[in-house]
Amino acid sequence: MWRDAALVAGKDLRVELRSRVTSNQVVPFALLVLLLFGFGLDADRPVLDRATPGLYWLAVLFSALLAVQRSFALEEADGNRDALRLSGLSPAGVVLGKVLGVAGQLLVLQAVLLVGVAVLYGTRIEGVALLVATCLAATAGLASAGCLFAALAAGLRVRDTLLPLLLLPVLAPVLLAATRAFDDALGVVGVDGWAWVNLLVVFAVVYVSLALLLAPVLLEEG
Fold this sequence. Notes:
The protein has helices spanning 2-19, 21-41, 45-76, 80-86, 91-120, 128-153, 159-185, 193-213, 215-218. It has one domain (2-218). It is mostly helical. The protein has 9 helices and no strands.
């Protein structure tokens, strides 16, 4: 499974590196979201400071929708999804590879957005270890849940509009927990950020487990 996952993740990441969709479209979109939030709240600086963790993760969430849609749209062209089914690769390995590919893109995006909030909002990081742990746990949850529902919606004519409706309610707990952990990491509110990271780990384990267990069904021909 891990070998197959590495093959699929490597393939997806090579496609993104060559097409530069993430760097030329997704990253500018996320930075634009941060910039617009900043314009909307800059008149009330204390509110902007308190809202920075939530605005950061909203930008990540919107970008994650684009990333997972892009990841599974690649398999709809030229019968690639049928080729995956006939390739002999483990279904769990294929889905895990998709998760790893999306997670890699999201981690790069988050690093860029951290620079963005530091420059645009003047945000200071007070807990580096907490911040890194939050990003890793939240990324695992976002990528696994995103790939799970993107695979369910793949092949449908309304997948572009259906996916956000399915995915956003499921990711709401991840958004909340990541925001609260960042409140502590950025020194916005005095909360126990590590308790929220533990909750993020639980969500990540549940979503990854569901994606792997349902992998044979997700890759069946509709």
